[in-house]
Amino acid sequence: MAKLQYFERDLAAAAVLEKPAVHTEFLRTGRIDRTRPNWEPTEKRYLSYEEVAERTGKVLSSAGVRTHERLNNFHRSIQFPRMIFHRTLKGTPHLGYCHVTAAKSSFAEYKDVKWSFYIANFSAEIATEDLEFHKINMRAERMYFAVAMEKDEEKKKFAINRSIRGNGLLFRTHDPKMAMKNVLLLGAKHEAARRIINAL
């Protein structure tokens, strides 16, 4: 894939009518305006990968904060810890994902499963080895997913627990309402609360 270039989009500057180019002014008047600056504020300003990653991180983090607030505002019996951090994809800093929360739940035949909930600004297939993405689709607006986690004693970090459902993926959806419902079901400790959430 070719290396991407990013530039700053200034809508106000784009709305202003541009002055005629130097060569057309010369052809019209026979004079060259020496006071004209070499760089016009209406020209594109290219952004570095670091600047793009920083902007992407701010957007992802604010989405994570809003989502966490909505989850905790549902009912006081279902509260999640705020654990917000983001990562951008290598080589494409305009794409990234945000970790929103993590908890421990028991569901179906599984007991005390540690899991994490994420939001991504793209759609993709999640690799079972680690939190890596394949077949990335940038046209989809967002992807919400939760994965089962376990502590990897060798690497001293958390990894996807593939013993849960074969790949560790608890759910993946593009629908924000379905994502909220799934996370609330994971966080509900009582069967009565689960019935209420399922009825929504």
Secondary structure layout plus pairing:
Layout lengths: L5 E3 L2 H5 L6 H8 L15 E3 L1 H24 L12 E5 L2 E16 L2 E11 L2 E4 L6 E5 L5 E10 L4 E4 L8 E5 L2 H12 L3 H9 L1
Account of the 3D structure:
The protein is α+β, with helices and mostly antiparallel strands and 200 residues long. It folds into two domains: 41 residues, no CATH class; 151 residues, no CATH class. Helix content is 29%, strand content 33%. The protein contains five helices and ten strands, in the order βααβαββββββββαα. Strands 3, 4, 5, 8, 9 and 10 form a six-stranded antiparallel β-sheet that branches. A two-stranded antiparallel ribbon has the order 1-2. Strands 6-7 form a two-stranded antiparallel sheet. It is elongated, with a radius of gyration of 24 Å. The mean pLDDT is 83.
